[in-house]
Please model this.
Amino acid sequence: MVTHLYLGVIILAVFATTVAADIQVVCAKDAVRITWKIGAELVPHAARLFLGNCMPSRLNVLPAGEGEAQFNYQFADCKFKRRMKGKFLIYQNELTYRPQAKSKPAAFVYPIECVYKRPEGWVPPFLNPGSGASEGRGGLVFHMALLNEQLTGVAKTNVIPLGSFMPIWAAVEQKSHQPLLLLMEECVAATTAELQPSSQVYPIISNKGCLLESVRGNSMFLPRYHSSAIILYLQSFNFGLGEQVYIHCKLTAWDPEVLDEGKKACHYAKESGRWELLDDPFQSGLCSCCDSTCKSRFKRGVDLESQGLSHNSVLGPLIIVDQSDSKAHNIPMGSVTAADSQEKTSLS
Model:
């Protein structure tokens, strides 16, 4: 038994070495060029080599009988995954050798990744999805939507497992305005689409931009890809389980050069044990009031409020489910929409 196992390990090692003899990857502007050199015994099976779901675009047989499989494809092909991380765009895929049908696991997998600095002013294609858009005063158009896990588009389901993350994206179309900074001043969860004095609410962001859920859980603001948009990476919480839940947020478009205790985006960094300012960690002192009461220091803020640069938006319904509960498996999947309210007093 031991001898057979040992021989099996040797055979697998030789096989892996043959398949992955030499792989060269060149990341171009909007495409990738891959050269995969394979042993002579794999040349007859080159049709079982894949980049994502794409076969080699060319196969060269070398004088010694070895093969050179070339993959020249755009990132729009072969099921490349695109994700955004801070100031970078990342395209990911896999090279695989599948001697059997695709329903079977691949015999060899090699990750492919191309990383680019995000172009200035680049925004995801869902910036103007039409859903969740609401025009506020001053000619500004506000958006709020639930994103998928990859942050590449709007989520296709509104059912959220308890403890998982639900990225909430908000943006403002500036049109003819000077560049503006979008802030989430206040956010609460409620089981109703309209807030009433008797509504039971769960505070998420309060005290003029302090993310309370970053203290209770692992929620945070993600690095911005544009000043006019913000992504709240919210960990789902134990509120209204199995019921329809709505996220009510007061969005404010603000002068990016004028941050103060009343206009900010702060989350609690457990690694450092302190509140941090999303847009300039060196000014995190503005977040120190999150443990007490935050007040605006600038009278200019009153003038901007009177110009209608704040707007209340509602996202939902969302359904948070506890997967350990057998009843949760009977909840039908649905889509999430955004209904916006012009009432500026509901989150005061």
Observations:
- Helices lie at 2-19, 213-216, 300-306.
- Residues 2-19 form the longest helix (18 residues).
